[in-house]
Amino acid sequence: MASNTSLSLTLKIWRQNGPNDKGKIVTYPISDISPEMSFLEMFDVLNDQLIKKGEDPIAFDHDCREGICGACSMMINGQAHGPHRRTTTCQLHMRSFKDGDTIYVEPWRAAAFPVVKDLVVDREAFDRILQSGGYISVNTGNAQDANEMPIANEIAENAMDAAECIGCGACVASCKNASAMLFVSAKASHLAYLPQGQPERNRRAQMMVNQMDEEGFGNCTNTGACEVQCPKGISIKNISRMNADFLRSTIASETEI
Amino acid sequence: MKLDSKVPEGPLADKWTNHKFNLKLVNPANKRKYHIIVVGTGLAGASAAASLAELGYNVSTFCFQDSPRRAHSIAAQGGINAAKNYQNDGDSVYRLFYDTIKGGDYRSREANTHRLAEVSVNIIDQCVAQGVPFAREYGGYLANRSFGGAQVSRTFYARGQTGQQLLLGAYGALNRQIGLGNVQSYNRREMLDIVKVDGRACGIIVKNLITGELERHAGDAVLLCTGGYGNAYFLSTNAMNSNATAAWRAHKKGALFANPCYVQIHPTCIPVHGDYQSKLTLMSESLRNDGRVWVPRDKATVEKLQQGQIKAADIPEADRFYYLEEKYPAFGNLVPRDVASRNAKYVTDDGLSVIPDGEAVFLDFTDAINRLGKDTIAARYGNLFEMYQRITDDNPYQVPMKIFPAVHYTMGGLWVDYNLMTTVPGLYALGEANFSDHGANRLGASALMQGLADGYFVIPFTVGDYLAEIGPGNTPGTDHPAFQEVEQSIQAHTQQLLGINGSKTVDDIHKKLGKAIWDHCGMARTADGLREGIEKIKGIKEEFWNDVRVPGNDNEINFELQKAWRVADFIELGELMCRDAYNRNESCGGHFREDFQTPEGEALRNDAEYAYAAAWEWKGDDQPHEMIKEDLNFEFVELKTRSYK
């Protein structure tokens, strides 16, 4: 796979030394980049050069590098995870760029995702939303035999479609309001589809939406950018489904009063 | 030291039941008085933490990721085995037990493996109750698929993301306990050492990866659920940050490390494509159902292929070497992982690689597409083909895939007894971090099963026995001098790393280490090669401590410093892997010694001398390890030679 078309690029990368630093774009020219490299491997090469020059390497989150852990989180030329649909940053390859390109790389930007350093942001707000109710309450050992509750194939498939969310935060980063509705509704829908999820269905939606608001995420105005940028193709239909559950739970709680 | 496996007496099928009854209990009111530390939040860690908190224990979890959900269990593709016998095809607990023992080439502990098979059925029930969306038949019942090493269909799956869905289930259970205040969750923390007082584990020191600060945590028991050590090889299918530091630090504090040479090398991965490559990507084993593995028969053809003068499709049938089909007519392309990997190595060693400057063989779907149609193949493997194309830019519907084996899983790990306790009282190891259930080779879809078995259904019983023994409130707090002492040694180690200021990056040295272990302790090993490997690794250690450059400081985000810690430990572990492989004068499972093979080139076990687990004891810097044997007394299974001809 020898390639005679190595790339020379101009990288414009956001550097920010901690949450209170103002931060700025810094320009890094880089050459001899193989088109077969992944985008993050290009960052490895750049960091290797920075370290050898005695400079501070660029901090970025990454782990599995196969598109499933949800750690990587780069805004590339203004698009979450770069130019391709249904592709995480770690699965993006340099053959998607041309020799001489200038590439802007920035962190996710949202009040609820403060920058930790450079391209690393704090996404623990997502964890706290799920801690508020994104589960089925069943203790270990409580379960009946798995086949005692048949679940139609298409129900399981729908639940799986919603469950594929990797919690990367691209939806928030892509939303002009920095809303987390796609993320929250994916979890709500996954469990709402399944019979096991019914007892807590409305309460779950309410708890998670309340926590989402508390974390400072914006409101959803149905522009749909989240769905386009989601690397797992999570549908915004989940948002309407959750809104219905939320409404039901709100009405129920008002009736009680 | 004498090893006591604590395997209970009695018939195989009754051991676990009897043992559970004999274990001491902690009364419900006392449980909250105990603090349990869980390091790692993959399948083993998340399931253990959630289950223990449900029981009423006070639990803290630690992970180096920014969220517990990102632990590398998330990346497992294929599925999880369970002896449900929903297919009515003759499965049973005993059959799953037997397949696992045999698949591990008779090098695991019978009692542990049987318990694993027993609780496998409960795992599926638990996961379904949590909302894991397993694949379903149209009637609504759970679907199964077949996997290697078994003649029954017992693998449950959620598309190609089974690990993700199981982990999200366990993470949900964990989140519930965090929300209830029963679990304290600490993210972006890396465990750097355990703290012992009077010989037992009483806490850990972790580094806050954001601030650089060291934090002390005291606990009545410490559970290491920190995964395997495949990243010692630098290139593997593991996540970039998977590391062995927690396990290795525990080892240096007295926990024996067992069978480090047992490493699983998975045959179907996307090959290495350059020096800058950071990791390898697995292509599911299921592809070998319809793909045919081949290379050109002669070097002249290989040369033309490598130079781009001809394409795979131009090579006539007679000039193709379908080496697995020719050598193993009975199993063909579906031989077990170790056999498939080794044979790919043989043909590329003979100069028959299908790529220039590297090693790869073809996995060809042309015949299957002609026979079944493109749509059928797309329905079976569409997502894998898409992933392959995204990475390589080749379309596997039109040209054969190029694949090569890669390090995938480590069967070795911290030695544990039947209760999952290491040789340090109060210190446990669960999941891939321990050595116990898979012997010398793990069957596909059994890693997820073991992680969850340990976390949901074993540790909640066994840890209570120890806690009841020590009593509540008897563990020293973080003001004990032992914490201070360990913290100081960590600071000294860190300052040493930061002060070297050499010319090589951590990755430069890690790549060199990885290549040395791969070359000498990889798919095929020899006594001479292992001796050479040990010498090379000693040289690499020298180079590391004299010439590595770790930039930055200790009081900030410093991923390079963290990598340096991990690589320093991988170097020592790499040497032990070679020593263990050198000691084991036989071939078994993933450990293939070229000097111990049958005339046909197959693995030659030596049951008379090596039917034991090799548990290594750290004796101090610059001292050789001491090996302690745990004899594997096979009471119930007859040892046989595996044959796939």
Explained architecture:
- The complex is a heterodimer of chains A (257) and B (645).
- Chain A is α+β, with helices and mostly antiparallel strands and 257 residues long.
- Chain A has two domains: 7-116, Roll (Ubiquitin-like (UB roll)), CATH 3.10.20; 123-256, Fumarate Reductase Iron-sulfur Protein, Chain B, domain 2 (Orthogonal Bundle).
- Helix content of chain A is 35%, strand content 13%.
- Chain A has helices at 39-52, 124-131, 153-163, 170-174, 181-193, 201-214, 225-229, 237-256; strands at residues 7-15, 24-33, 75-76, 79-80, 102-106, 115-117, 120-121.
- In chain A, the strands form two sheets. A five-stranded mixed sheet of chain A has the order 2-1-5-3-4.
- Among the domains of chain B are: 265-408, Flavocytochrome C3, Chain A, domain 1 (Alpha-Beta Complex), CATH 3.90.700; 481-612, Methane Monooxygenase Hydroxylase, Chain G, domain 1 (Up-down Bundle), CATH 1.20.58.100.
- Helix content of chain B is 38%, strand content 14%.
- In chain B, the strands form five sheets. In chain B, strands 5-2-1-9-17 form a five-stranded parallel sheet, sandwiched between helices. A five-stranded antiparallel sheet of chain B has the order 11-15-14-12-13.
- In chain B, helix 5 (110-130) packs across helix 13 and helix 11 packs antiparallel against helix 12.
- Chains A and B meet through helix 1, helix 2 and helix 3 of A and helix 3, helix 5, helix 6, helix 12 and helix 13 of B.
